[in-house]
Structure formats: C-alpha cells, structure tokens
Design goal:
The chain has 18 helices and 31 strands. The chain is an alpha/beta fold. It has an 8-stranded parallel barrel with strand order 1-2-3-19-20-21-22-23, surrounded by 5 helices. Strands 8, 9, 10, 11, 12, 13 and 14 form a 7-stranded antiparallel sheet that branches. The chain has a 4-stranded antiparallel sheet with strand order 5-17-7-15, with no helix packed on it.
Amino acid sequence: MRTSNGTNQIGWVVLVLILLGTWAAVAQNSGDALERGFKNPPESAKPRVWWHWMNGNITKDGIKADLEWMKRAGIGGFQNFDAALNTPQVVEKRLVYMTPEWKDAFKYAAALADQLGLEMAIAGSPGWSETGGPWVPPAQAMKKLVWSETRLEGGRPFKDVLPKPPSTTGSFQNIGRGGSGGGTSAPPPEYYGDSAVIAYRLPDSDLSMAELQPKVSSSGGQFDLAGLTDGDLVKAASLPAAPVDQKAWIQFEFDKPQAVRGLSIVAGGGRGRGGSGESSRALEASDDGQQFRTVAEIPGGGTAQRTISFPAATAKFFRITFKTQLPPGAGQPGAGGGAPAAPAGMQIAELVLHTGARVNRFEDKAGFSAAANLYSLATPAVPIQDAVRKADIVDLTSKMRPDGKLDWTPPAGRWIVLRLGYSLTGARNSPASPEATGLEVDKLNRGHVETYLNNYLGQYKNTLGALMGKRGLQYVITDSWEAGVQNWTEDMIAEFTKRRGYDPHPWLPVLTGHVVESAESSDRFLWDLRKTIGDLTTEYHYDQISASLHKLGMGRYTESHESGRAFIGDGMEVKRNAEIPMSALWTPETPSAEPPGYGVDIRESASVAHIYGQNLVAAESLTAYGGERGAWSWSPETLKPTADTELAMGLNRFVLHTSVHQPVSDKVPGLSLGPFGQWFTRHETWAELAKPWTTYLARSSYMLQQGKFVADVLYFYGEDSNITALFGAKPPDIPTGYDFDFINADAILHRLSAEGGRITTPSGMSYAVLALDANSQHMSLAVLRKIRDLVRAGAVVVGPKPTDSPSLSDDQAEFRSIADQLWGSG
C-alpha cells in the first residue's frame, strides 16, 4: 500500500471503445462463448478482495458470514492479511497468530473457500510488507554497510585493534532505528560481521579538519570542532533558529585560504513551532568574514547523512547557513492566526568540510536510499592528483585477526585503514500483530530467503495439509515494498565479483565517499553496486519466492514500487516470473478530484504481462484514505471513475481494497484497516446490493482478458530508475492515437527479436518502434549491443543518442563506436 501522485482522467468513452474493439476482434471467432462469458463472467474475471484479519479479532461465525457474503456479492476470491493498526479488541478472546486456535480458524476459512469456489491467497508475511517475521534471526535479516577509519603515518608500525564499525541497528552508521516497532518495547537486536579491510594512501590535498584546526563559531548554541567531526552521528548540539527569513549559521575560519571540495552534514529538526517549514541550507564562503557568496545549496531529505561535492572553492571563511521559512499561509489570520510562530532550532550532529575529493551524494549512490534520478547527481570532475590511486590501495583483509587486531607498517605517506562490515537495518514486517512481528529477511541472500519461506509456508502447510496448492490456499501476494533499503549482505563482494566481472576491493573507498581514480569511474562503480543489489533482489528474493511456491503447486501475485522508487531494482523485472503481475491505484480524496495518478503502475504490470507472457493484470484497487468523503461513504458511483481508469490502463482483474474481516455482527459498521478503505464489507449499507457493481467489474475484466493487446510502441525507460518514479506525474510523450508498452533492459536482452520490420516477443507481441526515453542515454553496453542487432535485423529505433555506459565493467570505446554506427558521430 502506497499512495500515488498526480492526476489524469481517462474518459469513459475511451474505455467503451476499448471494450467494443476487443469484442469485435474476438467475437467472430468465439461467438456464443464470448456472449455467455459476458453475461455470466467466469470466476477468473470476478474481482478479488483484500481480507484483513485485525489483531486477532477472528471468529468462525464471522468467517462464515464474510465468505458467504463474498460469494453472494459476486466476488471471486480473497487475499488474507494478518494485520494490526491499533485495532481494538471486539471479541471475547483474541486468536493469536499461529496458535492452535488461530490455525483452526484459518483451516476453517480455507475449507469454506474451497467449498464455495473462492480463490485464496495470503500475504508474503504477517502484515503487508514484505517478507519477515519473528522466526527470522538477526544473522538472516536485512543488512547495511558500515565502516570505521583509522589514520596512519607511513613508516610507523601499527599493532593494534582496528575500531569496530558500528553494530547499531538502523539506517546509517551509528544512527539507530528508534523503537523496535510491532507494538513491542523490546530494543531492536544488534548484529555485526566483517567484510573487508583495505588501506589507501591519501592524496596530498586531502587534509582532515583535525589537521587544519579551523576556528568554529556560530550564530548561537555551543559547537566545537571535535564534536562536529568525531564521526558520532547521534550526539548532537542545538543551533537556535534565526528569526523567520534570516539565517542561523555555523562558521569555520581557517588560518589561511583553503580549497574546499565537499561537505557532509547530519542535521535534524528544523521545523518551527506552530507549523513553520523546513530550513533551506547552503554553504557560503568569504575572504573577509563579512561578505559571503553562495558556494552550494545543500538539499534536504534522503539519507540521514548527506554529502555534496562541488568544484573547489577557496576562501578563509566558510559557513553553513540555515534559513527558516514559513510555508504559505502559516502564521496568517485564518490559518492558525496571529503572527508567525517562533521557529525551532536545528540539531547538528556532524558537519565536516572536505578538502579532498568526495563522491557527490555517495550515500544515495551507495544504496543507503532508494533515490531516483541519480544520473543528475554526477560527481564533478576531479584533478587526477586529487583522487585516490588504485595503485595506492592495499587489501589487508587477510592480515586482520578475528579480534580485529592488525599488524602492518604502511609505506611512506598518509594512510587510512578502512574496516568494512555490516549491521542490521532493523526493518520489520508490518503492520502485523505484536506476536507476528519480527525482522525482515535479507533480500539479497537466496539461502536466507528460502529458509524464511520454508518456515513461513511450512506453518501454513502444517495447518492446511491438502488444502494448499491447487485447492484451498493457492497464491501468495507480495504487496508494494515498504521494507526500506538494504545495500549489503555477507557475500556481497563475491556476488559483485561474479556478476560485474571485476574485483571491487580497489574501489571500496568509494563506498565511504572517497574518489578513486576519477569522478566518472567512482560513479560507475557505484552504479555497478546498485545493479548488483537489483539483480540479487530480483533473483534471490522474488524469483526464490516463486521457486518455493512452485514446489507447493502455488503461484505469486506481485506488486513492486507502486509509487516513486521504493527499492533498488527494476519494477518490471521483479514481476517477470509472477503468475499475476499486480499494481495499485488509489481513489481520489475529494469528490471533485480526478482519479489519482496516470496509472503507470498498472501500465507497468500490463507491459510485464504482454511481454513476459502472462494474461492476467491485477491491481490493488480503489484504495481510499481520508479526504472529504470520509470512511464508509463510498459507492459504485464514486468508485467507478477510478475503476474505469484502471481498465483503460490495462487491468483485467480487480483486487478491491479492502474487505476487513468482521468477526461479530452486533458492532456496525465494524472493524476497519485503520484509515484505509473503501470499507467494502458485509456491514456496508449496500453490501447486499453489490452484485451489479461486481458484475460490471467482472464483465469489463472478462472482455479485456480476451484477445491480444495491440500497441505500436515499445518504450524503453532506461536503467537504474523505475517507471513510477519517472512517469508518476506525467506519462511518456507518445503521439496521440498510438498505444505503447513499457520495456526494461532485461526484456530487451532476453525477449526481443526483429522480423519483417517489426519487433516481436515470444509471447506473440509485435511492435513497430522501439522508443528510447532520455533516461536511457546512460545505457549499459549489453543493451546497446542488442539494439544494434535489432536495427541490423530491420527494427526501427527512435530516441536520443546514448552518451555512455554507466558501468565500470563496460568498454567505453566499444560503446562509443556502436553509438556512432547507429546515430552517427556528429
């Protein structure tokens, strides 16, 4: 479940034409069968519902009443989620997840569903995201990279224990996760493992703040150099905010003008009391301490630590400024009233100026966030003498003892010894009942995912026996990813080497922000890391889910990002082996609004179905949240515009959100999924009148399940981003009157051929043109080679000339040669 942005009304007239066109295309061959299917839609066309069991509020009487109503109402099945959102207890006794009483109720539900002919599915974990539970041990949970740095002088023997990197469970270095979540007060578990030890000689220009000893002053608060540069990202001091539209600041004064190339900051807070907005931040420089010029803006959001780099700026004074601004209307009469509220201060934990070259936004590029549009964040060019040389990097992994002790004498120069390891992100499955909440499994390790599934699915197999597989429980649904990011696993270095074809050890300083060899090479190494993370997520998480399910005769529904970019990986690729690719579209929050979003998430799933050969395209449908209408106020009239949008975007199976289990009949309107709806349960006032509505959805879905989609354009959106991040607000610029499918790199490489001037797929699709989005100008060499081969076979390709490969493992000279052959060298 995740909201989507933007609006785009798909007219009902367009939908009618689509349905009529589909009818005409197949009616002459299928005749009476098509008419019979339209009049009485088969089970495959009927909508499913999400059926949430809320915090143990479960009864057999309620199960029977719910499922029998679903059958009467024309629903074809349900997807069960065991969830909790501060749900009150309305039954005499809660049925706790996987206790004998809970299992008995679940088996009863499966038997009744089988008897009624209702398709049954469960979520990938308790809650709705993603794959986790209390049986996941820390060693098998989601991990992040952590490190420590030790500075050494060449020629001096070092015989000591290297500082252990942070074992803190959280998002970045020693920043903790906060609470443990899941309704329990127990602290999150900690775990640590070593990955590598390397040393590298620092360029002469790379001087630490401790070596330079600038004077620190500020507009308020108490700050000193040691506290701002000690590497502790949690311990913070408060910088009082300046009055609205003025600047608070922290200043560094050097003994003489100093060239600065980057900055790292860890700062929180910044929201004023009474609704003031987030502070804007900037680095300013001055020669006299009086007149300052802006060097760089410091973007907010994203990772807890943010590093920016820029062309070297030389000055004696540098200050970081924080300007607090009120959002529109705040502090004005009628919007809280009165004069603007006094803004709060900023909590500053770390603030470091870098004289040496740093990778711009390395935290995002190294996978500590799922930031999109990373191609726009290229690291500025670095003089060769200011980058770390590969020749000056030494692998000391085998020299460190298990207790962390290292015995090594560095050659001449100034050195950093980097100890790299991994600790936990602390992500937990949610929103599950406390008893069913635990760590999310490591998505980058096939063995851990398989172990998780053996346990999870095994619990249901022990409960259901023969009512699992072709009968009874038939599917698992993986909802939109809300588990956060992970960028490491214990065998990451080996996996990287195998997949990218080179040893990452000489490039490991890049993971901590240092430029190795050049800015371009360092950015490309980080692209290769993200590509590896994406490959592992697809193969070891999603494909392994399919493999484990197939052993039990089951299948998979899969959503991916839903909106924005939720994880490092490709949304189409993770759905490629799902029996039913799935997506989501929410209803508008106000009666006057258009259906939200362009529907690209549905278009993504439809494209997967067309290209990879699935027929069904499902979506979490008609999800509601707040707005002017409020809860229990939705009807077919208010829902139909959004449903029609979904059909026009390629959906042919509705999964209605949501039909919460109602354990009792004397408390109406009953339990809900917190603020989420549209509250489609047997307690709804029009519940017994719902059959015409579900029949409309089923008939429309049935028609769109017939025949084959016809499109003129295949639209390649590039690599290292995703469809909903790129096109959630605005669709691709496709000429009016032409339809299209999205395509990803995996499908280009493995699904496309050219024949007779058409681009074809094994699934039977045929397209006239392969169109390249601007995001694809940074294109991997393998994809460019395949495009060359398609063109030689007669395919038509349109779009901007690719500029380079983003991968360090690719031959840039060969890339330029092929691009020049296809687009010309001008």
